[in-house]
Amino acid sequence: MKNSLINWTHALLISLLFSLSACSYSPNMLKEAYSELGIEFANDLKQTINLTPSQNARLNHYVTELMKWHRQNKLPQYSQIFTRLASTVQQETPSIPVFQNALMQLNGMPHFEQARHLTSQLADIADTLSANQVLQLVKSLNNEYQKEKYEIKTKKLVNEFTQGMEQLFAFAEVPLNAKQKKILKDESVKFHDQRWYELQYGKAWNIRLISLLKKPRNPQFKAQFTQIWNNRRVKYTGKVLQQRQQDIKRQAKLFSTLIAMFDQDKKNKLALKLQSISDTFSELANQ
Prior knowledge:
Blueprint: H1 8-18, H2 27-35, H3 37-46, H4 53-73, H5 75-88, H6 96-106, H7 119-126, H8 131-154, H9 157-171, H10 178-188, H11 195-213, H12 221-229, H13 238-260, H14 264-285
Helix pairs in contact: 1-3, 3-4, 5-6, 5-14, 6-13, 7-12, 8-11, 9-10, 11-12
């Protein structure tokens, strides 16, 4: 698992999109990658805990229902967002508010935590975990925490950010030129590094979950598990929230600046890619 249970859903779809960047975008590749999303979600749990056949079957059922909900409820929303992006990138000066709204709405993709009506199924599975399985989970979470802690210490945010932005444009087959890359590099140092905050938030969430799992014969287990699981997304408050809001505005402005530097042919090409993503999400939603 990446960082902690709290961050896996976001990492899955973002890595899913980035994994395609080397080969550039195509509808079929996006469809194939999306079809693997539920499998990856389930495998992430199965690699953490050695499930019994019964637990495994119940988890597979949960994931099937989760992906059905996601196709019907989230993909239409994503489709609308990418349609708006496709329209704005063709403008002489792309709309900063459109990018800002898209960044806020897409944050946390694929938003599995919003399927709250399904959490009771996970709670029923969690309530059957043995003491040995809970120990397996503890060990896995501790290993992932140490791994992520090391990565934060050794990998600079500026490098991760610039690489991620360049990959997104390469994914759409409109790579940045040298001048754009310099602007990106100069702006990237202005973003706040909140990875440590997110890591510690995830650690605290993990502790709450493990504490609950270690309580045998708890009559309030299902309700407490549901409350913890449905609130696993990182919450930003105070100064950290202000910094995050500033960064979203800064990134929206950066997107607008970089795209405004493209000639009209590249803008049109980018718009076609974004609209194709929108159309693909729409098609998947109707399957």
